[in-house]
Amino acid sequence: MALVAAPDRACARDLAIPSCTLAEAIDIIARGTGASIGTTNPALLRRRIASKRVSGGVDNMLRQILGNGVMLRRLGGDSWLIVGLRRLEAEPVSALIPMRPPEPGGAAIVVARSRSDAALHAFPLTARVMPGAMIDAAAAMRGSDALTDRVALVSGTHLGPGRDKLFLRGIADSSFAGTRAATVAPYLGEQRLTYRAADPGLLPLDLEQVEVLPGPHGTLYGAGALGGIVRLQPRAPDLGEASARGWGGISATAHGAMGGDLGGLANLPVVEGQLGLRVLGYRSDAGGYIDDTARGDKDVNRVRTTGGRLALRYRQGDWTADIGGAVQAIRSRDAQYAQPGTGSGAAGALERRSGVAEPSSDHIALASATVRRGGEPVHVSATVGAVEQRMDQNYAATARDGGAILYRQADHASLVTIEARAWREPGDGPGWVGGVSILSSRARQIRSVLPESPGDLLRVRNDNTELSAFGEVTLDAGPGLSFTGGLRFSRITLDGDALGKLDSFYFSREQEPVSVARSETRLLPSLAATLKLHGKGRAYARYERGYRPGGVAGGIVSRKFASDRIGTLEVGLRDVGTGPLEWDATLAWSRWRDVQGDLLTPVGLTYTENIGDARVFSADVTGRAQVTGRLQLLGAAMVVRDRLHPLEYLRDGSHSLPNVPGLSLRGEARYRLPLRAGRSLGLGALVVHEGVSHLGAGANLDLRQGGVTRLDLSGRLELDRAVVALSVENLLDARGDRFALGNPFTLRAGAQTTPQRPRTVRVGFEAGF
Question: What pTM, to 2 d.p., does this model score?
């Protein structure tokens, strides 16, 4: 299925459609009316349309360009589905209608929001856009793994939900979420979620789509977007129709405990056509599967996730105002690593001997407000938002005197963002975007030890303020050829300090407080060219730069670390059609200076350091094919080759960046079988492979990890507005080591692994009202 989404500005008008493909004509109609228009047959999108003027409602416009033989279905509100053309389609209509209007799903996305809201397929960059409908309730319970499972460009760590990090296209700095800015900037709608913090692992429920934009994207997004952008786009309130949906499931994990999940959402038009409310709530309990033989406890690593979102939309003419908020709490009863040498000694053993629980938690709360005007030809918007996140971790450790202690680390991060921008989309003149933004980040880290002691307290603080002005312009240079150039001017201030010590881990000494207070100016340019090929296909080249500010870090000795910077050249092809197959391909070269990464002290404390310079080469290809009206195939592959030139004292370790699989593969098949009375059966299979990588820089982190493969199966019996679902995760019950370190303080005591979740079967039920 293909989907076109446009700004919410529903009204009938007279529109001029040039000679173009159906995909481009739908784009014009969607933007002119504010409607969302989808099709179950992506092959139709390459159909050529003669130039003409269209008027009236969305349905009349589509009939004027496709003829009266077009089969349309209104999904509610301003959402329309092109089922097919009567003279071309042999499939019965019931086989092609999505189960849950208005939630069409599929893989061939035509239009999505970028920083200027223009069509992503027209922009000179790599973009992977996944419909939210592709992530069902069973997949969404996996959190950020639901994304990494389906997009080969994205990889991540597996320390535990709420403590992981995401990486894009091999731009990876460390296995630990330390005091530096992340390499990936995650967004929920228009609100940035983190800066100096781990990925919060928001469950991807009730999403319009997920956008993955490999970076750097310093020009439009500023600091911390070295690797790129991951945006979760929530469904906005439907102003025309009330609806509700609920779901629940029970899961059983081999060699582990039972689990379950439930959730629900409601959409309420308060004032029809003007004001609407959408509310989401959920809870998930993932059963544990690691045993602690020292305590005699089984299945210790149970994880509970609870959360919800609220969205309020007001529309008046060309103006739209959105107010939203989200909260989520993740509580892990114990760590999820195992020790292969424990008990049976098998390499795939699901047990360890820690003797004490190592719980962790992550809490996030956010609120944002966006006002947007969609008038022609210039659009404007303004967004203000705030995020609070707290992560707590506990590790069993051994003091320098040999006694057992518990190490505790609390990270508290807050983020305030304000941005105003205006843009004009390419068309009858140059396209451009310009704006100003303010970002204020405050990060606190407290390290302590139990039993408590006055000499065991270390505090680290890093505060950043970024004031920026940015702009980008696209100019036509001839038939099908355009050039894009941009620049961001940023003034960044950094204020940080580290003070205190941890006497339990090393001989007591006076620790001199370390502080930093400085300002710097950054200019981040971008330059790109796009050449339109046959149909929707495009060839492009792009160069862009990004950076992260420095800061202070604590360890045995507190220290400063400098900012790092990256420049990337990429060339690629997008939306190239070969029969039923559409594919994208990209080559990217990155040069990364003064890479910030986390290292381990001999006793197991982490600290941040500039570990050296790196070069990264990546190649990726993504394909999608609508083989028949019932069968869809998706595939993706990424190859990364990198070289780290580390500091002198790190040269005994790996010369590869951490957590960078040399090969990542994804494959998915979806089959939909129509049954009588409008019912249908959907079947799916997903294969995920992550190649081998290393844990980190330095000899003590030169540990092999990865090399895992997983096969998932799923089935959905759709009965009008109800669904019965069955899914099997890790059908072959494969182990593998997704992350080679679970507790840095006991690393010297023996090998550690983080195995994949064993075979897990979930039976679920969904109902819409």
Answer: 0.85
